[in-house]
Amino acid sequence: MSHLDHFELYSVAIITLLAVISPGPDFAMVSKISLLKGRQAGVLCAFGISTAISVHLAYTLLGLGIVFANNLWVLNTLRYVGAMYLIWLGVSALWPDIRSRLFKQGSLSAPNSKAEKISNSHSAFWSGFACNALNPKTMLFIVSLFSQVISTDTSLLMELSYGAYIALVHFIWFAIVATLLTTSHIQQKSAFLKDWIERVSGVLLMGFGIKFLISH
Question: Which parts of the chain span the membrane according to its record (predicted)?
Fold first, then answer.
């Protein structure tokens, strides 16, 4: 492997790590689901994010990424849809508390635990998937990486290897976040703060959504 190839490899590795660990909607989503629904749901959310990364990679490798990035209507559509989704998630997180205060509703009977676990699993995966798939910044990150950092002379096998690495890093990082947030020590403390965790995560998700909506 040439020196240029090594430079490309290290660049992809470092840029990906920095992009993954930077706070954003994915981090807020994994944190919320892990703290409120447990480790398994948090890891499933991480897997959903990683799967969405694979979707971004697929259309980028097919050459559609640059087409999307160069068409303003595509970016705006993705930005608006992603923003509205995050705002909807934020409102949904805040709504139970608002509803209980407005209508003075009592506690509802607990749902069947087995059905609830299945629902939580599906919800956790698709929440992570949608959060990342509808994030225009993720699309631009993938497209920029493959168009500006990775050489056009790079083989398809190497590009696929980069893609697998990017998806894997996303999964590992957010699985670690989910694991750390569901240790017994943190869970004992968060058990008393579940309502506030729901509220704060709702506000953060709404904030990211509004930021997407007004950004240019």
Answer: 12-30, 42-68, 80-98, 124-150, 162-184, 196-214
Read off the pLDDT of residues 100-120 as tens digits, 9 standing for 90 and up: 666 655 444 444 554 445 455
Let me know if residue 27 belongs to a domain: no
Tallying the residues shown for the chain, one arrives at 216
For 9-15, which contacts have Cβ atoms below 8 Å and span 24 or more sequence positions? 11/149, 12/145, 12/149, 12/150, 12/162, 12/165, 12/166, 13/165, 15/145, 15/149
- 200 domain-assigned: yes
**Using the 8-state DSSP alphabet, how is residue 36 labeled?**
H
- Cα end-to-end span (Å), the chain: 40
CB hemisphere CA count around 130 (13 angstroms): 15
Segments forming the whole domain that contains residue 166: 37-121+137-214
* 189 part of a folded domain: yes
Structural domain total, the chain? 1
The structure's pTM equals 0.76
Please name the amino acid found at residue 75. L
Task: Please report whether residue 158 resides in a domain.
Answer: yes
170-188 core/surface letters (b: 16 or more CB in 10 A; e: else):
bbebbbebbeebbeeeeee
